[in-house]
Amino acid sequence: MSVGILMLVHTAFGRAEQVARHWNKYGCPVVIHVDASVKPKAYKKFVKSLGDLADVKFCKRHKCEWGAWGLVAASQSASEMMLEEFPEVRHIYLTSGSCLPLRPVEELKDYLKSRPRTDFIESATTADVPWTVGGLDAERFTLHFPFSWKRNRYLFDKWVDIQRFLRIKRRIPHGIVPHMGSQWWCLTRQTLSAILEDPERDTFDKYFSRVWIPDESYFQTLARLYSTKIESRSLTLSKFDFQGKPHIFYDDHLQLLRRSDCFVARKIWPKAGKLYNGFLRDPEGAIKMSEPNPAKIDRIFAKAVERRTKGRTGLYMQSRYPNEGWENGMTFGRYSVFHGFAELFEDFETWLARATGTQVHGHIFAPERAEFSGRQRVINGALSSSPKLRDYNSIAFLSNLIWNTRGERQCFQVGPRDEGTPIWFIAKDPNAQVSVISGAWAVPLFKSNLNFTDIRAEAARLQKLENDQLYALRSPYAKARVRIWTMAEFIEAPMEPLQTIIDEIGMDRARRLSEAPRMTDLSGFGQFLQNLKNQGMHPYLMGDFPVEQPETGQKKPPRKPYLVQ
């Protein structure tokens, strides 16, 4: 015998038994530690199932919890039994019940036999690697951790904060430099026995029992004291995602695991029958593989992480939806937003659709309902015009509208009445082209038959709402292409800004506009604004609108619009 296998088991006992028998069949003694949290009935049944194998032993049980000392205590007990019961073992390989050997056992034995003095254990200082994700690095060795991170998260975090505030710092035992690495190691008998028989073991155990996640630092640190040759890598393939959670391997990972050339993989889904049947087989049918090289599949994992965290442009998914800023592009494609145009022009929607060939909607965030093109009730993607469904998540509604109608540019109207408009989302979206005629909300009021007192109150409300929308569009965080004209500026020479808008939409063949939408009759509008001023309401967003409309030949030269790049 040259290799002894330690197994830490807490669930999926049928698979653990299958793997233990495989190791033992090819001459590897096995010592199994079963979590003390496992019920006695299940434990006895598991022990009985392996009772026919003389070289499979069960060690003293400890209660194991993630990040706590129990995992180290379990590894110590299993190691002590292995060293005592099987003196001919030269290397001891630590695995879990969810680990699966990927290569013939004889290959592993030959590989370790040719390296009799080499310890395979990932071991690096906290300053050398950025492994920790969302946790503590150097502080895990200098603070006390009496509370469970999983069971008492609040107390855990509070106690860390208190220690930081009081500047508490633990003394690291003399002669050691804390190292970190994978829990799954393969050590020589000489190194492992030196760690377990060290005269200072009580001191080390007392210190590491209050270190956070000691199973990733205890053996990794002490191996540096006694090993004559360390290969700082694990022979076990264990991959972690961007959140520090282990990847689980399923049946469709069969070819991927073969490419890794690793001896053991973790974590295997218990119901992955193809993996267990494919790798737990006789050496004659096994594939000969080369030096373990998990980096060969790193590119595939990197792509998987990118797809999970970034995904496709303009789409949202479970893994990144709750996190603002994780979206890969806020929307799928370019779209145009018109503010005030439908109020100033009587046939703006039909004119724009005819001039650009795009799909032009009305006020899709109108309080009454979403005014889809042609006033449809349901459009692509089963998007309903119901305001209740739309306002449940207005950002998702807009994103779905752009995605489900991909290949056709969308144009729609907004205004201060549309209080549910996700204006900040639109302002920060690089795909948005926003054109604004400020103050145009006053035109429908001018043509209404309301009492003037009601008109004044509504005008004050709409002006405040529009001012808030303009604040978002002028914000330094805005990434949309924004053009803002006051109403007075726009009507002086409307063809020039209309031509600019059409050009920016990007028609297949740029051409000069030969017709303009029909502007509503504004006779008396200047006096209407003056009446509002006289009544104490100051309508400033429409610009310097004259009380009397000037003659055509007396028009002022057009002024440039407010432009946000």
Q: What order do the helices and strands come in, and which of them pair?
A:
Layout: E1 3-9, H1 13-25, E2 30-34, H2 40-49, E3 56-58, H3 70-85, E4 91-96, E5 100-101, H4 105-113, E6 119-120, H5 153-166, E7 186-188, H6 189-196, H7 201-208, H8 218-226, E8 230-231, E9 236-238, H9 254-260, E10 264-266, H10 273-279, H11 298-309, E11 335-339, H12 341-344, H13 348-356, E12 359-363, E13 378-379, E14 383-384, H14 387-392, H15 394-404, E15 410-414, H16 423-428, E16 432-438, H17 442-447, H18 452-473, E17 481-486, H19 487-492, H20 495-505, H21 525-534, E18 562-564
Parallel strand pairs: 1-2, 1-4, 2-3, 6-8, 9-10, 11-15, 11-16, 12-15, 16-17
Antiparallel strand pairs: 4-7, 5-10, 13-14, 17-18
- Kindly provide the radius of gyration, computed on alpha-carbon positions and rounded to a whole number of angstroms: 35 Å
**Uncertain regions spanning at least 5 consecutive residues:** 551-558
How many individual helices? Answer: 21
Mean pLDDT: 87
**Proportion of helical residues:** 25-40%
Largest sheet: 6 strands, mixed
How much of the polypeptide forms β-strand, as a percent range? 5-15%
Silhouette: elongated
Oligomerization status of the protein chains:
single chain
State the name of the first-level CATH class of the domain at 335-535.
Alpha Beta
CATH topology of the domain at 335-535: Rossmann fold
Class of secondary structure makeup: alpha/beta
Cα separation of the termini: 73 Å
Strand order of the largest sheet: 12-15-11-16-17-18
Organism: Shimia isoporae
GO cellular component, one term: membrane
Domain DUF5927: 266-565
Membrane topology: Single-pass type II membrane protein
